[in-house]
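Entry 14. Ran structure prediction on the chain below.
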Amino acid sequence: MSTVESYKFEVNGQPYTYVAHAEEEDIDASGPHNRKFFHEVYDANRERHSMDWDSYSLPTKEEVMTWVALGMPDRNTIKSTGPLHSKELNQLAASRNKTGNLGESDVGWLKKWAGIAD
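Output, structure tokens:
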């Protein structure tokens, strides 16, 4: 498994680190045909939190920050049988904000509420 993405960020003044690892699947002479991602967020105490996100895509930095700000929800929180995607994350954020569905550019209230620095 190899690290494909890693970065630091803050939510509510607390430092976090996001790390995505990739596992190559179905490898033959032409190379890998599938990449499965594993998402982890480390808090200030270096405690690892598995991000229950789609295994075949990488979340944006804003999605990772929103996930942390919403309390690191999993599929049980959203009452789903599958992992989180942008749609479910936005629906959860909207339900907590009570203003309807959020678009990618309409998360200013969440940033302000969570103390997320741009």
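The chain has one domain: 2-114. Will compare against last week's run tomorrow.
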